[in-house]
Design brief:
Radius of gyration: 21 Å
CATH topology: Neuraminidase
Number of strands: 31
Largest sheet: 6 strands, antiparallel
CATH superfamily: TolB, C-terminal domain
């Protein structure tokens, strides 16, 4: 009798599990992750914590970086694949670094081939880089104490960081000399010294002209397997993709002069925020476009290796996604193994900003065949009750989409995607970014200074 009752209970449980699985839709929140699909980490109970970027290690663990203590300190957290804190890293999974200023924090993260973790951001208005060993301790072989800062102009802002095939560190940001804001890159050797074979004494400044603004708050870079550097940014309100040679000079085989400026809407303010490399070398670049005040939309484009728009991608090489009335800001893109592309950011909700996700087919069309989300238009929105934003997205080891959204604390959310993915906010191993494509990339740099 007891065996019969047990088998009945087991059958009921399995039936319920099967029904739940059958009703699960790609794009649904994965409620098996954390609490209601989210993991929240409060580093400092008395102050604001900001998580800005995530990356995945080859073992499936996830590293999140940002700031704590009301943006006074760098913050780095490592999670196990189930969302629990990894107590083998730092103190109970958390590492806080105070570089001695009143405004500092991380905006980018990368992992080198030795498992070292490179965290890049700002100390006041200066560039700052920290390198940790895999256990979270400072790597004193990097600039003697594991940290370095660089002052170039009156305001220097880091947006993104990547690692090349030689484990050299490439940072992307802007500098402001009082008259103009310029795109600025630096490349560092593994010991923390500037690489004098890059640009001028390790620094490459790309001026856009007197009085012009080089960025509107976001930039992103990817490094090809041949060492060439791809950048997406805003050139005084124009969506711009740049490719540099390994020495930092413009690659003239890319759109003849190393730079492609693309228009999605006429007379619009447009910003490039995230770039990924496909396995065939084509470039996915994404951002947002504002044709009218209070009306900003997601935009995405695919470029051939020669810098021309790929007309096999949504026929024009580009696509625009409007979640509805209001401003929609794209922060990050990721590529699934089947070639589908997911973009995430913050979109206008009923009363505040919500997390917004959209999935495109590999040909650039919306994946709206009732396979992603329940809206029938390939979009997913999530309202967590505040001004929410998917700042950085990637695919975790369990083939599910992971994102980090804006909050008073670090927040990780997980969504169901049955296909595996790479092309993420961070790579599964060395470098930052796309394991779909060759080389390394990153998730769309976002600075604390915005």
């Amino acid at each position: 009798m007891r065996r019969y009752v047990f088998h009945s209970i087991l059958l009921s449980f399995l039936s319920l599990t099967l029904i739940t699985a059958l009703h699960a839709v790609e794009g649904d929140v994965d409620t098996s992750f954390g609490t209601d699909g989210r993991v929240t980490t409060d580093i400092d109970n008395s102050s604001k914590d900001d998580g800005l970027e995530i990356i995945r290690q080859s073992d499936g663990k996830v590293i999140a970086v940002g700031a704590t203590s009301d943006r006074n300190d760098f913050a780095t957290i490592r999670y196990n694949s189930d969302g629990s804190l990894d107590d083998t890293f730092g103190i109970n999974g958390i590492r806080v670094e105070d570089l001695g200023s009143n405004f500092e924090g991380a905006s980018g993260v990368a992992i080198d081939s030795n498992g070292n973790i490179i965290v890049a951001g700002n100390k006041d208005a200066d560039f700052a880089i920290i390198r940790y060993k895999s256990n979270g301790s400072l790597d004193d072989s990097f600039d003697t104490n594991g940290t370095l800062t660089a002052n170039l102009t009156i305001q220097d802002i880091i947006f993104d960081v990547a690692i090349d095939e030689d484990d050299k560190i490439v940072i992307l940001g802007t500098t402001f000399n009082g008259n103009e804001q310029d795109i600025t890159l630096q490349r560092y050797n593994t010991d923390g010294t500037l690489d004098n074979t890059f640009g001028t004494m390790g620094t490459r400044i790309i001026p856009f002209g007197m009085g012009k603004v080089a960025s509107l708050g976001f930039e992103s870079l990817a490094i090809q397997s041949d060492g060439k550097i791809v950048i997406v940014c805003s050139n005084d309100g124009l969506f711009t993709v740049i490719r540099l040679n390994t020495d930092g000079s413009f690659d003239n085989s890319f759109d003849t002069d190393g730079m492609n400026t693309t228009t999605f809407n006429s007379n619009s303010i447009e910003t490039g925020t995230s770039v990924k490399l496909q396995s065939d070398g084509k470039i996915i670049a994404a951002g947002d476009s504002q044709p009218n005040a209070g009306d900003r939309d997601f935009v995405i484009a695919r470029f051939n290796t020669d810098g021309s728009l790929d007309d096999t991608f949504n026929t024009s090489g580009k696509n625009i996604t409007d979640f509805g009335n209001g401003d929609d800001f794209l922060s990050s893109v990721a590529i699934q193994d089947n070639g589908k592309i997911i973009a995430g950011g913050g979109v206008a909700g009923a009363s505040d900003r919500d997390i917004g996700l959209v999935r495109y087919n590999s040909d650039g069309s919306l994946d709206n065949q009732a396979t992603f989300g329940s809206n029938g238009d390939a979009t997913v929105t999530t309202d967590l009750g505040s001004n929410d934003n998917a700042l950085s997205i990637l695919f975790d080891a369990e083939q599910l989409l992971v994102l980090i959204g804006g909050s008073e604390d670090f927040v990780l959310g997980r969504y169901i995607t049955t296909e595996s993915g790479s092309g993420s906010g961070g790579s599964s191993g060395s470098g930052t970014g796309s394991t779909t494509g060759s080389g390394s990339s990153s998730s769309g740099g976002c600075s604390l200074i915005r």
